[in-house]
Amino acid sequence: MSPEKFAITIHMVSSLDGFIARKDNSVSWFDTSDHFEKGVDIPDEEEFNKTVDCYIMGSRTYEHALELSGNYGWAYGETPTIIVSQRSLPVNRKNVELYNGSLMELIDCLKSKYKNVWLVGGAQLAKEFIRLHLADELRISILPIMLGDGLLLFDHIGIEQSLHLKNVTGFRNGMVELWYEINKTGYGMQNTGTGRK
Q1: How many other CB atoms are found less than 10 A from the CB of residue 21?
Q2: Cα 93 from Cα 106, distance rounded (Å)
């Protein structure tokens, strides 16, 4: 469901032990063979894309999405997609654009056009959104696997942040989605105990 007011949702897929990719950046473990009898079906990708007004992602996530699009198609449909990167990357879709500038200015611009904006990777960009107090919600999809090593979802984020659990959903493939609202009244407490940033 789309929010009534402008909101930034960080959505990430993680292993149970907190990794979003193997050391070689591969995510083949996304294809789980688990089955949870009480779970619900994963939403249709095309229909879900219609509920999101704009996607934001980092360069590595974009490169990976491009690689997968050769076999599976572009996962984000016709939804406007902004790639935050200092590198020059190939863009061959009219709804995809590169951005290299202030994240605060980017969000100010998006507020005039959209309501439901999803940040879908990567980890460094997600952490920066949290540090800058730009994110409103976290939706973390945890797959039934422990990778043991790789790229961590949240490591040394630098602030303590209280959250409100909005919902928990178990899917038939064994994935569990944790949906949190970021508590803005407790936003940005440093983990050193020295108070607000």
Answers
A1: 24
A2: 20
Beta strands in 61-145 (DSSP E): 81-84, 96-99, 116-119, 137-143
* Count of beta carbons in the 10 Å neighbourhood of residue 118: 23
CA atoms within 13 A on the CB side of 111: 11
Sign of the Cα torsion 178, 182, 186, 188 reads positive
Bond into 158 cis (ω within 30) = no
Q: What six digits make up the tokens of 36?
A: 């949870």
pLDDT in tens, the chain (197 residues): 566 799 999 999 999 999 999 988 888 899 889 999 999 999 888 899 999 999 999 999 999 899 888 888 899 999 999 999 999 999 989 999 999 999 999 999 999 999 999 999 889 999 999 999 999 999 999 999 999 999 999 888 888 999 999 999 999 999 999 999 999 875 555 544 333 33
List domains and CATH numbers for the chain. Answer: 7-21+33-190 (3.40.430.10)
Residue type, 23: K
